[in-house]
Design a protein that fits this description.
With 388 residues, this protein is mainly alpha-helical. The protein folds into 2 domains: 231 residues, no CATH class; 128 residues, Periplasmic binding protein-like II (D-Maltodextrin-Binding Protein, domain 2, 3-Layer(aba) Sandwich), CATH 3.40.190. It contains 16 helices and 4 strands. It has a 4-stranded mixed beta sheet with strand order 2-1-3-4, sandwiched between helices. Helix 8 packs antiparallel against helix 11 and helix 8 packs antiparallel against helix 15. Belongs to the ABC-2 integral membrane protein family. Keywords: Cell membrane, Membrane, Transmembrane, Transmembrane helix, Transport.
Length: 388
């Protein structure tokens, strides 16, 4: 076995180029997409204030206080131009009737015009929901207070002065304050878009070298190297083991290099649970090796593998949450299918590690699912290959 493994290592130079390429690609793409999402700072948010009331002004002030956006008040034509030319991801329109909806306690409407599908829109919706709720609660408090005050003594500008009092006391004594803590969570740590993108690309691009290195078995059979090995003193199990161990070593090396590069370039703090993180990467590599053996068992040449692999890996990665958060998928059938992909379980465990610094026992279940998938893939692949 060691002689076959040694020959694989010596012949690695012919594959080194595209392995390096698969290591550079995720860094470049993270730089591009991470830069787009972060925008080098705050995103510009054009706002069209059609209502032009005291409540719409307070809404804009609340958005500014969130410290998430650079506010740019524009007219509807300018907002449409910015969105259409994709100078911004989205624009906010405060339509007429917003003031009446707040005062009458009705459900108001805000319009978000968007140019592209982006996860950042969910962040904007969260900011708007929080701001509108605060404005509605304060408006109700002020109106009730002024109504009671006017029964005893009518004063000019009572509503404005009452509002200023409510606003000054809001941070000190909020009507409701909810504090939530997840066990094991680092309160100072939040997963940002760059970290999420890096994690997805780390898993996605590491699958290609592993799968194609396992696929070298097809090339060996085509060049009759496999036949020569069959008549050598080395057993078939040792030949398979050497190929799979070699793919595992290269795959793990690539993933660890990517982890270090992302940490150095993008200042990503992956997790404090280093052992759990490395174990997860190892189990994921094992599963991809099994997947590679499964695919090669149904194919005859490495060219066929080159055609099939990108389709399988890309589609399952999209379904499994490497390209975007699986939480945005609402179709129940797709969510069910996602659970049959290795990427879903790997990303699920990685999110727990990155976001919550989860202990190893908290990611045992996804790792066990990955390991079981690897065993099934490998078992079926060997059975089909030997049955030919």
């Amino acid at each position: 076995m060691f002689s076959v493994l040694y020959s694989k290592i010596m012949g690695f130079k012919r594959n080194m180029g595209w392995v390096i390429l698969m290591t550079i690609f995720p860094i470049v793409l993270t730089l591009i997409f991470g830069g787009i999402n972060s925008g080098g700072g705050k995103q510009t948010l054009p706002i069209v204030n059609e209502d032009n009331s005291v409540y719409s002004r307070r809404l804009i002030d609340e958005i500014k206080k969130s410290n998430s956006y650079r506010i740019k008040e524009v007219d509807s034509e300018e907002a449409e131009r910015l969105v259409r030319e994709q100078d911004v991801f989205f624009a906010l329109v405060v339509p007429q009737g917003f003031k009446e909806a707040i005062e009458e306690g009705k459900e108001g409407s805000l319009i978000i015009a968007r140019s592209v599908e982006t996860l950042d829109i969910y962040g904007l919706q969260g900011v708007l929901n929080s701001a509108v709720q605060k404005i509605a609660i304060q408006s109700n408090i002020v109106n009730k207070g002024v109504e009671i005050l006017n029964k005893y003594n009518k004063e000019e500008n009572a509503a404005e002065r009452f509002y200023q009092l409510v606003e000054s006391k809001w941070e000190e004594q909020r009507p409701i304050t909810v504090r939530a803590k997840v066990l094991g969570e680092d309160n100072n740590k939040k997963i940002n878009s760059t970290t999420s993108i890096s994690a997805g690309f780390l898993l996605f691009f590491s699958m290609y070298p592993i799968l194609f290195l396992v696929g070298d078995i097809l090339e060996d059979k085509k060049l009759l190297i496999w036949d020569r090995l069959m008549i050598s003193p080395v057993s078939k199990i040792e030949i398979y083991a050497a190929n799979l161990i070699f793919a595992f070593i290269i795959g793990m090396a690539q993933m660890l290099v990517l982890v270090l590069l992302n940490k150095i370039i993008f200042k990503i703090t992956w997790t404090e649970n280093v052992i759990g993180f490395v174990l997860l990467l190892g189990v994921f590599a094992f599963t991809v090796i099994g997947l590679g053996l499964f695919l090669t068992s149904f194919l005859k040449t490495s060219q066929q593998l080159s055609s099939v692999a990108p389709i399988v890996l890309t589609s399952t990665s999209m379904l499994g949450g490497l390209m975007w958060p699986v939480e945005i998928i609402t179709n129940k059938l797709l969510l069910l299918l996602a659970r049959f992909t290795p990427q879903f379980w790997a990303m699920d465990a990685m999110k727990k590690l990155i976001t919550y610094n989860a202990p190893t026992q908290d990611i045992l279940f996804p790792m066990m699912v990955l390991f079981l998938m690897g065993i099934i893939f490998m078992g079926v692949g060997l059975q089909v290959t030997e049955g030919k």
